[in-house]
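User: two proteins, same treatment. go.

Assistant:
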Amino acid sequence: MLKKFLPQETDFFSMFEKAALNVNKSAKLLVEMMEDMSISEVKAKEIFEAEQEGDMLTHEVMRKLNKTFLTPVDREDIHSLVCRIDDVVDLIWASVDRAVLFRLKAAPPEAVDLCKTLVETTEFITKAIGCLKDKKYSYIQEYCIEINRLENRGDRIFREALVKLFDNHANDPILVIKWKEVYENLEDATDSCEDVANILESIVLKHA
């Protein structure tokens, strides 16, 4: 009888995993779109749906957090983690939205490389978050190192992409402006992945 009046336990870890899988799915759809821009509108619709799902997951975590007295990790870490994961999906959607809005064709190889790096990074985020529930903190630290390494790779690709963009399309400044905005959103997405890693490392330091 008493159990009826006790607050129900919330499995925040499963919600984190759903959010991580959603961001990885978004990144994979992004690669498919960049490899074949003729299907950009179709992929944009799928990525928008993933972005909406990410928003719903974030709101659900916030709702549960407000109703949960005891949490498995610090409340601020739960809040920060789910928000930063959602930021990655939002930035993926922002890059896709701009590409479709600008009617961009034939993505440069650097754009595809940056998106593939984002896929790898989100895969490590998914692996790291999958280790939270079982407190496999040493694995989380290793995955966070990989996320940071890939973020650095993303920075290099971003810089190379800008150089080639200005060199190859100096006679078309409008195209340069359009692709530059897409690149910046993609680079911001990789930065947000590093933010996720930093939060995970903070959780490890508090609980290991």
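Protein 2:
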Amino acid sequence: MKTRSAALIVACLLGSGSAFAQQAPAVPSLMQNSPPIPVGQVQVNANAAFAESGQPIKSGLVWRVYEDRGDTIQPTIVTRSSSPTPSFTLAPGNYIIHVGYGFAGASKRISVQSGSLSERLTISAGALRLKGAVGDTPIPGQRLSFSVYVPLAQNSEGRLVLANGKANDLIRLPEGTYHVVSTYGDANAIMRSDLKVESGKVTEATLNHRAATVTLKLVGAAGGEAFAGTAFSVLTPGGDVIREAIGAFPSVTLAEGDYVLIARHEGKVRTREFKVESGLDRDIEIIATP
């Protein structure tokens, strides 16, 4: 069953106020002139804006210009730029100008003959910024990964758009609804939510996990030193293997629920049932009785 426990905050327009904003270029002297356009060439000035709002997009753009040879021939790339407002100097002819914004983009056919012209492309796109928490406690970003899917009627997950996304990254996407899967750790602590991306906006979401991290130990007495080289298996009550590990005290993050722990050491096998409660990190010990 899909969970919609994400806390959503629709934030500011994309491209405004970035911690990575480049230093503004110096103001040119009034005596300076724009570089002349080479004889026989055409200057194309390009920019992009969000659909509906018309707000200029100021970062995260990748431009490519292709020679347009018709629909039956693979277009050849002529030039590219990552400037938000590039200027391309082109020979007269027909071109396809494309701008990418993360997983979104737009393209347009243009014909250039002489002088200069300006082209604005509009993109129906927004972004997701994802985090995770257990109760009121944020989950460290390095322990989270996100997968983003486009929902499809024919399967429960949908079509994968992004795998192994990182917490707090700006994930630029076409406008629409997406199915997000958040994985905490590397076992079965997984949460899901359907999130909407709106054009020109950042949707911030915190997916709340019900999970805890347990440290597995085989000891001679309660609270004693753990035996090195122990092979552990964590199973569901039905016998499905969730996680396997070898060591003195490996840790595993598990979804809230009931489990069976099996420890193998020096030819002997011990078992114990245990319960994981959300937010309660603790040691799970098996006593190595003779």
